[in-house]
Structures are given as structure tokens and as C-alpha cells.
Amino acid sequence: xxxxxxxxxxxxxxxxxxxxxxxxxxxxxxxxxxxxxxxxxxxxxxxxxxxxxxxxxxxxxxxxxxxxxxxxxxxxxxxxxxxxxxxxxxxxxxxxxxxxxxxxxxxxxxxxxxxxxxxxxxxxxxxxxxxxxxxxxxxxxxxxxxxxxxxxxxxxxxxxxxxxxxxxxxxxxxxxxxxxxxxxxxxxxxxxxxxxxxxxxxxxxxxxxxxxxxxxxxxxxxxxxxxxxxxxxxxxxxxxxxxxxxxxxxxxxxxxxxxxxxxxxxxxxxxxxxxxxxxxxxxxxxxxx
Length: 289
Ligand code: NAP
Description:
The protein is an alpha/beta fold and 289 residues long. The protein has 11 helices and 12 strands. The radius of gyration is 19 Å and the shape is globular.
């Protein structure tokens, strides 16, 4: 691409940010669309966050993604936070307004996107493993899809109680219960959707799985196992789920769709989702990955 005097800036703020795949998919889409924009990574230390977003506004950056560890910390620095982001308690996408930066959370849209076309989830039960940041987007997404029951499994009773309490006044009111890991054998037979939001199975723990095969065998034959992790593709969890005969979904589509939602918001026009997905697949399939 050619950077011109009119090239506009988009980017992602995080620390670390070197592992982010967002520049790959956004720049592929911008090139395909012939837009005079470039999307760049910005490493920003927590103590510099306020100065960074003020400075990026001052130099006319058009839109930002926000990733670990800034997704919560950025919220008080924004002029507007959407109800969806407030419910999740985290922001991952910023755009400019006359009052200052506005923020929303497109992880919810990304999580829902591959689920919505599959079936009507209104009578379904979701079983969510883990109760960290991604689990919040998953709960909000399941709430939007109208799940009858949302069961969250975690390993720390105090954190689980705080997680449940945090939804009491949320604009999205899911029917949420929280459980320790020991409840899994009783919960799995009712689970229509099983979502892994723990990091178990990521490259540093590749080969590990939050659920062993004998637990997966307890799930209904029609259950869908959704692992937010990418790569590896597939994770150990998804390999075991496939071997058990269960349908599977990995986290790549969530990543693509949260990015596509952000880019469409910044550019105010439809974006080439297939190009974004293919750019990521090609990047992840490079030799040595
Ligand atoms: P996080 O805030 O650190 O939460 C991780 C959760 O997993 C916590 O509840 C943690 O429990 C639990 N956990 C960690 N290690 C565990 C273990 N050994 N056994 C049982 N539970 C364990 O992380 P996050 O931001 O939610 O991200 C979680 C995963 O989702 C990551 O793999 C990330 O890559 C993925 N993700 C994917 C997408 C996507 O677009 N596909 C988007 C966001 C996140 P404690 O609270 O007890 O520590």
C-alpha cells in the first residue's frame, strides 16, 4: 500500500500488543476496499493510557481497538459508553465523537455471530467454563440470544459470587447461576452449548483441556462445543469433542466478527468479512505457526 498525505489512522492499544492479529485482518480489509487507511499496533503501558488516548485523539486517529490490560481501565476515560459495554464491564472499540472518545464492546457481536444462524437458542442452556473477561461477553451474548439458562463454572467461590452479583442491575438480565467445577457431571447432561473461556489449551498450555473425554461424553449428542481459543486450531478440547461426536466451533470467527463490527462502525460501510477471515487463516497457517 502507499501511505499518502491523506492516509487516516486506525489502531489497537495493548500491552503486550505484538501478538495481536488485528492489524493483519484490518489491513487486509482496508486494502481490499481501497481505503486510504492504515491500522497499526500501539504498545501502551497502563500508566500512559489516559495520555495515549488523549494524544491519539489530538493527532486525529479515527478509531481504536483496546485489548489487555486496558479493556476496563479505559472506560472512565470515555465520553460515551454503550449500554452493551456497560453490561459487559469492558470496552474493546473506540470511535470519535465531538465530546471525545466513545466506546463499545464488539466481542458480544463477535461471539454471537456464528451461533445465531445455527438454531433458535430460546429454550437452550449454556454452560460456560471460566468467569474472567471473555466470560462476561459470553454471558451478555447468551443473554441477547435469549438462552433459558446460563450456567457459569469457575474455580474460586468468591470470584464466582462477585461475577453473579455484577449482573444484578445489568441492562441485559440473563438467568445466571454459578457453580464450582465439581458440579460439571451434573450440569453437562443439560448443556446445549458448552463454551470454554479459560485459557486452557492455548499455545502455552496446548494439549491441555478444561474437559476430559469422559465429561464430554455426558453432554447431549446435539450439544455444540465452542472454544474461544485460536490457535491452536483445533484445541485439544475440540479434538476430543469431535471424537465424541459433538459439533464444534473455535474462536477464530469471534475474532473476525468482532473486528468486522468495529471496522464497519469506523468506516460506516459494509466490510469484506471473508477477506478478514482469509487473511487470518493464511497468517495462522504460515509455516512454523
Ligand atoms: P481472563 O480474564 O484471565 O479469564 C480466564 C478465566 O479462566 C478465569 O475465570 C480463570 O479463573 C480461568 N482459568 C484460568 N486458568 C484456569 C485453569 N487452569 N483451570 C480453571 N480455570 C482457569 O482471560 P480472558 O480475557 O477471559 O480470556 C480467556 C480466553 O479467551 C483466552 O484464551 C483468550 O485468548 C480467549 N478469548 C478469545 C476471544 C476471541 O475473539 N476468540 C476474545 C476474548 C478472549 P480464575 O478467575 O479463578 O483465575
